[in-house]
Amino acid sequence: MNERVAIVGLGWVGFRPVTPERSYKELMYEAALRAYADAGVNPRRDVETFVTVAEDFHEGTSIFDEYVPDQLGAALKPVHTIGGDGLHGLAAAYMLVRTGQFDLVVVEGHSKVSNLLTLPEVTAYAQDPVLNRPLRLNTHFVAGLEMNRYLHETGTTREQCASVVVKNRYNALSNPSASYGAELTLEEVLAGPPLAWPLGRREAAEQADGAIVMVLASEDRARHLTDRPVWILGVGWCNDSPSLENRDWAQAIYAREAGRMAYRQAGIGNPRDQIDFAEVDDVYAYKELQALEALGFCRPGEAGELTEAGVTAPDGDLPINVSGGSLGVGHVLDATGLARALEVALQLRGEAGPRQLEDVEVGLAQSWRDVPTTSGAVVILGN
Amino acid sequence: MTANIKEFPGTPLSEQDFAEGNILFNYDELRGHFAWDTGIAIGRYLAALKEGIILGARCTTCRKIVVPPRIVCEWCFRPMHEYIPLQDTGTVNTFSLCYVTWDVKRIEEPEIPAVIEIDGASPLHGIMHMLGEVDPPKVHIGMRVQAVWKPAEEREGAVTDILYFRPLQEV
Ligand SMILES: [Zn+2]
Q1: Is residue A76 predicted with pLDDT exceeding 90?
Q2: B39-50 and A24-39 helices cross at what angle (nearest 10)?
Q3: What number of C-beta contacts closer than 8 Å exist between A and B?
């Protein structure tokens, strides 16, 4: 069995609102090529098995796993595709190395959302077909319900949620891969058109295309390949009730439990002290606050205040979404968790350029599978 | 086997039961619209079809010539940037006689999908298309065929710019 697993290669392309010059296969290829060059591996000779994440309805092709091997260098190798978020894929790749059967494993996630012309209608297909979908609501309503109850129970304000947008989109200005960098005021965010009250249009992330590939290795292999491995210290994932009728609307229980699972493995008892920075779900602005509380960085109702006080800014005590998050980088659908983990890994390698944080040793990435799910995952990385 | 069973146990459902609302069900239709960016390699392939050319790509490492072209060799993971016009003739690798259409209608005259190894491409590299102008029982593996193109002014940069492949007069 391999006890320790490291990320030894990072490759990505994007993230941009449209990518008309490349097919999704060519996006995947470009990201893979970069990851293999970064890791110094040859996929045909060295990589033993591959994991990809994709949702058939997002791709427009069913049984999508059939369409992934060639552009990853995975032909005639073990490959499987998970219908899950990128962090679920990272968890699967991690476990494959842990089994001891494989020393070098690749995980891939991408978004070609610009090719999906009817995203809201397809997202609505995640609603229960008999109980919920006949009401014919835009699936943002789930976020509206959740945000409303979250504000109600915690006393968090709309202004505090909007301050997440101001922060993350400003952070994105220091990220050359981000699509939605902006310098906005709180008033400008709040003045946006309503989406699903209390949620406003400018508190929901816009989509982006892109692809991310990571190479994972056992400890022995990692030490041969690189002098800056990023260790996977803990992994967790969890699903709450899928039902809209009886879930906990105020808290992200799935994030809390996924976090606990990862903390247990990583030996983290006090996340606020032991984790230097995090990239968390912010597909909707309030989700970032909800995630911080669920992950134990603060008590319920405190995340908004911390954000307003600048604690989660890049120069604060607990930098959150320095990359810009989904609000600033762009929402890359199934690759979202990998985008969060990518930033954590870059920061830990000291390769985050103008947005590099100082003295970071442990970072956390958390993701959510978007409305209407209660499905999330957490990965803790260290250098 | 079921033909030998005279009576089925249970309560049969009729179309009328559905029409009259005796059966509860929920109907919905997905509006999933997609527009795939063809990208570098397939984009070139389609543009060449519009010109009446079948385009392949060559791997300088394993020297395979594949069709349709792609930007990376599946086997070497080396970039492929040599595009090569191929013949519009080839050899049937395999075929089938299909008596049910894509929307599940029975047909008398079969549709004949075939993989055609294109002349100029490496062995086992061919394109999936249809056979036409041929008596179905006469189709055979190894049969030599040639593309029948749409008139140039009607081509639109799609695989359907080739109507079908027909038997080549063998000498
Ligand atoms: Zn080759």
Answers
A1: yes
A2: 140
A3: 75
Hey, how many other C-beta atoms are within 10 angstroms of the C-beta on A20? 14
Bridge partners (DSSP) of residue A44 are: none
Nearest to A41 by CA among A213, A200, A169: A213
**For testing contact with chain B, the best of A18, A19, A23, A70 (most B CBs within 10 A):** A23
CA-CA distance, B107 to B79, in Å (whole number)?
44
Burial (CB count within 10 angstroms: exposed 0-12, middle 13-18, buried 19+), residue A9: buried
Q: Indicate the DSSP class of residue A68.
A: S
Min Cα distance B4 → chain A (Å) is 37
Cα–Cα nearest to A90, from A300, A225, A279, A242: A279
The tens digit of pLDDT for each residue in A300-355 reads 999 999 999 999 999 999 999 999 999 999 999 999 999 999 999 999 999 999 99
Best of A44, A139, A215 to mutate (most B CBs within 10 Å, chain B): A44
Q: Do A22 and B37 touch (CB under 8 A)?
A: yes
State residue A119 phi and psi, 5-degree precision: -55, -45
The predicted-structure confidence for A238-296, as pLDDT tens digits, reads as follows 999 889 998 999 999 999 999 999 999 999 999 999 999 999 999 999 999 999 999 99
CA–CA distance from A185 to each of A155, A163, A166, A178, A383 (Å)? Answer: 22, 8, 6, 19, 36
Residue B59: CB atoms within 10 A of its CB come to 22
Q: What is the CATH number of domain A5-117+207-225?
A: 3.40.47.10
Measured distance CA(A358)–CA(A380) in Å, rounded:
18
B28-36: average pLDDT: 93
| Interior angle at CA A380, CA A316 and CA A90, nearest 5 | 130
Domain ranges for chain A: 5-117+207-225
How far, in Å, is the centroid of ligand 1 from the Cα of B80? 8
Q: What's chain A's length in residues? A: 383
* ipTM for the whole complex: 0.91
pLDDT digits (tens, 9 = 90+) for A204-217: 999 999 999 999 99
CA–CA separation, B56 and A335 (whole Å): 32
Sign of CA dihedral A114, A139, A304, A318: negative
Sign of the CA dihedral running A244, A238, A328, A177: negative
SS3 A364: strand
Q: What are the domain boundaries of chain B?
A: 40-167
**Tokens of residue A375, six digits:** 């499905």
